[in-house]
Fold this protein.
Amino acid sequence: MYEVEMYGTLFHWPDVWPIDVSIRLFDCIFTRLKQGDQGRNVSVKTELEAENESEAREVGSHVCRIESQIFAFSSDTLLTLDSTYVRVKEKASDKTTGSKTFTMDMIIAPPVTLTMIQLESALSIAQKTFKKENSDNIDLLKRAMNWYALAKIEKESKIDRFIKFWIALEVLTSNDDGKTEIRRVKNALIKVYPEIEAKIQQDGVIGSKMFNLRGEIFHEGKLSSGELKDPKLNIDTQLGQTEDILTDLLRSKLGLPLKDLSRKYFS
């Protein structure tokens, strides 16, 4: 049995949350730390069985990253993990090792001021949702959340950002009804907004715009907005649509209150 721990920064801990007090999500415990020189104020720790230290480091750091993504998204705040150091300790041993990793920091959602009740309530909702879901759906949700996080930190290329959001969207809706990606996304969105089903079915936002942009990128290798041949496509517009629809679907899958981000596209 190994203990794996990563460190990072949470913006913002509730003001009344005491130092060294923890809260559990699923397999990880999040503990508020006294803020250090590098701004670290949170520890993310998990325990797992592994054949050796290397396996524990690889699997444990992945678990910490995924749960940190869910933690940040659920609480609608911002959480970064320091990816340069992973602490690994074998249980019943005093030996601790640190290892360099090469994963990217995660930045999810704009920072907001949290209250203790808001934080505990948000994580409680996520916990209840996961208890009701089967393992396949949980795995899809975690993988979609990972691609969402990768998209949020993508600052170099709008095309790459769109690709990552789209992958998250396809993963998240892969178990929904429908023979095509368009139909599955629409059906998933109708479950969120049943009162505007007809408008979602008829509107071309998902089918003729988002999906067409996906086609030009995936099948024709377009690398910039200036290369798009369809004059109706605009990378900024379709990027915003894809992110809003994905965010609504993620919040719905997690059982979180909706923000009505997608409704404006089908009015």
About this structure: The chain has a mean pLDDT of 84. The first strand starts at residue 2 and ends at 11. The chain has eight helices and seven strands.
